[in-house]
Design a protein that fits this description.
Layout: E1 2-6, E2 9-13, E3 15-19, E4 23-25, H1 27-39, E5 43-48, E6 52-56, E7 61-64, E8 66-67, E9 78-81, H2 94-105, E10 109-113, H3 117-122, E11 130-131, H4 138-143, E12 147-148, E13 153-156, E14 159-162, H5 168-179
Parallel strand pairs: 3-5, 3-9, 4-6, 5-8, 9-10, 10-14, 11-12
Antiparallel strand pairs: 1-2, 6-7, 13-14
Helix pairs in contact: 1-5
Length: about 180
Amino acid sequence: MQQLTDEGYKITMKKALFIIAFEKFRDEEYQQPREELEKAGIGVTVASTRLGTATGKLGLKTKVDLLLDDVQAADYDALVLVGGPGCYDYYEDERVLNLVRAFNLAGKVTAGICSAAAILGIAGILKGKKATVFPGEAERLKAAGAIYNARGLEVDGNIITADGPGNARRFGSAIVTALS
């Protein structure tokens, strides 16, 4: 973590890693949280299975900065998993599941929105934790031992989950608060 001083104020530079599907991530679930983090001065790096330009379900284009194989959890303060139809590819991706476990074990913010919140359960970090998810994945969270609720946003310690695009901005704000 790099620290800068500016006229007596100490600014801490935090960094978040967003994991998105290369195709069909959910546009709002990526864009709105990213805007909230960047507005707060938090750096954002985007990782996926391929480098280049990723495309959201609704057509948003964004640059992928890093391959999943090259991610080092120690380099970031938060992990943000973005939903959308493409995120289902990560349900059995050991790279992503291991990153979720590493961030959580280190006590870092570990967040998932919409169907991507289920990845936290699959990785085994939601047992006994309050969490929410896209309603179609509720049973998966319960099976993973989560205390599921149908709220739009849930924060339990370092774990932040949201149910979908309608709560994307609140999700981003909760991550900012957790990093403050």
